[in-house]
Write a structure and sequence with these properties.
59% helix, 1417 residues, alpha/beta, single chain, five-stranded parallel beta sheet
Amino acid sequence: MAYMAPEQTGRLQRQADFRSDFYSLGMTLWEVLVGRPAFHFTDVMDYMHAHLAIEIEAPSKVDSTIPEPISVIVQKLVRKSPESRYQSVYGLKYDLSYCLKIITQYKKSKGIASDTILSDKDVATAFVEAPSFEIATKDCSKTIQIPKGKLYGRLTEQEQLLDYVQKLLGCTSDMMNFILIVGERGMGNNSLLAVARSKILETNNFCVTGAYSEGSLPLQGILQALQQFIGMMLSSQTETLEYYSTKLKSSLGPEISRLESVLPDLRLLFGNASNVEDSSRAAVYPEMVADVTSFLKAVISCEKAFVLCLKDIETADADTFRVLAILAGCNTRCLVILTSSEPDSVSPIVAKSLQCVLDHQKDMFHYIHLKPLTVMDIQELLEDTVTPSLSPIHNLAALIERKTFGTPAYIHQFLFKAEAKGLLWFDEDEAECGWNWDIISLDKNIEVSDSVLKDMTKRVNSLSKDLKEVLENAVCIGQTFDVRLLSLLLHQRTAQVTNQLWDFLKAGFIKPIPFTESKGIWRDTSLDGLANHPVGAVIEYNFAFESVYEEIYNSISSSSRERMHLKIARLIYAVASSKSLQGTEIEICKHYNLAISIVSDHQERKLISSLNLQAAELAMSDFNFDQSKTFLANGIKIFKDMGDPWSHSDHLFFNLNLQMAKCLVVDGGLDEAKALLNVIEAHSQAKCNIYKVYYLQRHLDAMFGDFPVVLREGRSNLNDLGITIPSNIGECKALAEDLLEDIEMRIKNKTPQEIINLSKIADEESDMIQVIMLIVAFAAYRSSTRAMFALLIAMGCHKSLTDGFCRSSCALWMAYPSLSYYLRNCPNKKSIEFAHKITECIIQQFPEKSQEFEMVFKLFCGHTLQNTFEEQTEMMEASIQNARHSGHNLTLNIVSLYLVTNGFTFGKAISWVRNQMAAYREILDIVHSLSVPVMDVLMQRVDSLVSGQQTDVIMNDEFISVFDLTICLIYERPDLKQRIAQIRGYSRCLPIGKLMDILFVEAIDLTNEYYAAIEGQDSVKTKLSSILEILKRISSLGYRDSIGKKYFACAEYARVFGNSMEAISQYEAAIQEFKLNGTLLWEAYALERFAAFWHGIGMKKMAQMSFVESAKKWNEYGSEGKRVQVVSKFKSLYGVQDVADFDNVRQEGKSNPDPGFTYNMPRKGSASPSNSSNSRSFCHSSRFGDSQTTGTVNLDMDATTALKVAQSIREETSLDSLLRKIMRYVMVNTGATKGALILSDNSRLTIEATAEFSDSHEIIDVLQSHPIANQVPGFRLPLSVIYYAFRTRKSIVLTDPANDATHGGDVYIKEFGPQSMLCCPIINQSTVTGVVYLENNLQGAAFTPKRIEVIQSLMPTASIYIKNAKLTKTNTELTEALKDSGAASNIPKYKIDAPVQRAIDILQSLKGRMVAQGDPA
């Protein structure tokens, strides 16, 4: 707490950044230099207040031997306001280095060794003898800081406006003037207005402001201005308030009650004088214009000058102009300043509305036009903003002027956007620092403002006919166009067209594309006799702004556009054909398709259809499926427009439809694709075409999840192609074994590369047969027997050896290792290694786009198990992304499910599993995947694991089965054996990794069975031994995930066979392996089993320790159900007396477990959530917590402190002591440097107590009912703020008091310039009993709304205690006075309030009368 920056306390309206570290560094250096901390308290609140409100004394004042330059450096570091500290490390480093240089030079001059440590006296002498230097001369801001309050390029306009204002203020007679400030939006109209307002408020006259907007209410701006005027009145002293309320009341009369509906604070101005009507009445009423006009007339007729400012007057309603016209006819000291952002339309509107006045008094209306900033103006702004600069400022100024047209607001946006994108950066170098930029990158990456675009669009209409023709032809070519192609279209030389484009280039319509960056289809082509690589020539241009490009394109008539596009298409096709250019089909088709309605030639239309097919294939290769479907639809439509396309058996039309079906499949239009394939099949005659249709149909069936249909129809398709698949399992297995033996014979003693080289490349028919075998094998894997799957894989691999390899062969050979496992029940390491090598050779032979099932069979057949979990996850994530782009939705479905189940069975934390499920469920939902319900069931299984409650949802799926097995195992459910038997009984295939998990679960279950069995334990041992042997063989293959589980199973095996030492060794090895891999689930479960082992051999302490560690791990894993179960086990074994060890388990792991999860079903097309960070802060706030944590800590401290104070003052009867306690609490809790407690006595405000805190003193004065109108000597207050809070019952927080519209003119604010102010009314039982005023003169934004809540929670009660203390004080004084009443002197010994004195006088009189009458009473 002693080193915390003010903004890190959570009590300021600002965030911590790298400058917070400077403050902490300064506090550390202060302590190092002085020998004690700058602040030392026992209470946290005192620390916070000190950091916020107490200026730290200079180190040199505490210890005179500390050199002044070092002291000044430290003082700058510990400034309360971040803006007053160093703004960069470079500036601080430079100053410290200079101090070090002084010491080094002193040593050299005195002949002292460089490594000698000087005494404090010598150091002080070194600095005394050295020349003085000014600190922070090299310091500069690392963020863009545009100077506030300075207007650039507006000197003339500013002088002109201030001249009108000065005339008004200096005029003693009546004078009415209108000023219209005209400038496009962002030109600085409001900034110029602020200058005039500041000048007016300095003279204690009135300046009020209102604004209009599109669709604003009638008289909106004028009503806002009047509401502001009422606020000023409520802030004024009582005499002024009474003067204006009397003046208005006499001028208005019945209008007051009506105006209250549109001016709510008006009733506060008149108190009970007006009849307050129902607030539910309509805001707009018929007499409103007349009433508002009367109100304005009454206001401007008062003694002070009045300035009315109305912004965006072009959007004002007709009633506003009626009121202004009436005002124009008044003779009074008034100035109306209007602003407009529509220079072309506002003058006629204003002129028409005020025509009757302008005809007679034209000299009362003045115009100020704001023009764009020049390059010199922008350069001046940059010199004040990006200084020092490491690049030429004039180049940046010219670019900004071109991009923004000199609009100030857009210049600011440009700079901030450039900084945010990293295109304008602060360079900190050892030798030099400053702002830097790359002018080319800025030009390319920063877009221009809307105002520039509008202006450019207007310029197009003023072009000559020839230039317009050039521009229209360029637009029709595209947003990027080749000047040589444009020359061919216009039948002109390239040089001539380039000269015509020069004007567009200067105006910013187009940008040149350097030859090195050109990506156009004509880049390396010679056109119009121009060389391929012209030195220094620009051959491509780009339209700079899309909106301008679209505006020009839409302005061309449709018939002209069609003719131009047809001409362009024919020209590009001719050039591409003559020069054999590739990849031009998309460009040609774009133009042809836009002109197809005027193409009549049959052959040309057929050509266009063919080009559309080629363009669609190119688009699909770039994963642009929407564009591909558009090209295909155009090609199909052309054929249909020419008659019945199927009657001619046209191969082109078949390919268009087949490509459309493919595109629909990968883009999610499955029903449309299915219907289209049925149509294609009905009309297909060529054998090759039938193969393609078969594959797509089966693929589509698989997409729908109809794997039995895929298997049935696929076998039928293969039968049609001469390949018979037996239906009997035994026949399938026998045939598969024969094929496997033949394959092994054919590949024996040959390397994979030799096999590929000796084999031929498969022809189209063989390729399609292998593809169909692949999809049918996948269906067999998902729905049929292992024998059927093995047969299809064996047939596919055998066919590739016989008829040749193709890319589909890669996926088939990926599955090759499964043959030895499914047919011989033994994984074969050699087959895995061979499959790895031959698939790599196939990929090298056929490097085109991968086949869909490669990754699926890579996972299913165990190829990835030799990788680490992280490597497996990375491979699967890459495969999912590739599948999304390439439309391989089957791969997307399977790999997404495999990824989340793999993380679960591996043992990753619940939070990780849930996050992955949420992310991939959303992806699957976008592509309408049938795996979404499976993912939902998996999510329910995760919830079951967390809570320990069973789920009733049953789904027969291998992914879910693995989840169920794991849950049954760790919760020791009785149906575990049944589930193992059920999965064991499957004849279907299971991924090798999942089979390994099943074997592991079965091994643990057999251990449980052994301890539960009375008989048959030997058979259990035999089964366990055989399973363990298989696990060891699998582990010997190098499967990473099997290592820890093998150790675990071996530990259980040793435990069963009574080998305790071996069991301990294996348990510890398993736990260590799980810990290293982050396998939380199995680490927690191993610890639990280890605890049971220790308990079984009578080692109670070891068992208890393992139970506690297991509970911690289950908590860290995220399963509350398991944690509770482990605690219950512990209690049942050892009773509750030892259960205290578990009390802190949840607290210790509180930050680690999953904090809760809401599993929402995403809407279709919803985007995945993303996290992004773009912070410039280098402040390490972990010492104090983040903003949320700080806020919570502050809330706790506020509540605790308020409770302490309430308890402290409850029994306090001394008024003096009570007021001091209250003031100290308020000051310390809010971080104020000055404050006052003001209470109301019959609506008369009196100061009860004041406080001022600084570095040298803490002064709290108890004044006891000092009238606020009589200022306390040496203690001034801003009366306008106090009166406003009291009268309006509204709390005020001013972060920049000097520029506040209502209170900025306060004499106190102008004279003393407080940085932050807070004024809070004290409300008790709906009555305002006073106000609390606080200020901080060290930094802005020092108070937050939370401070108001704290004050308001305490002060109503405190005011009651004050009242009670006053009564006690009065009673005491009265008693003492009566005791002294018999004394000779009638002067009381106590300072007695007037009411108390009157009571004493009455009582003394009564006493005298009673004594005179001899009454003994």
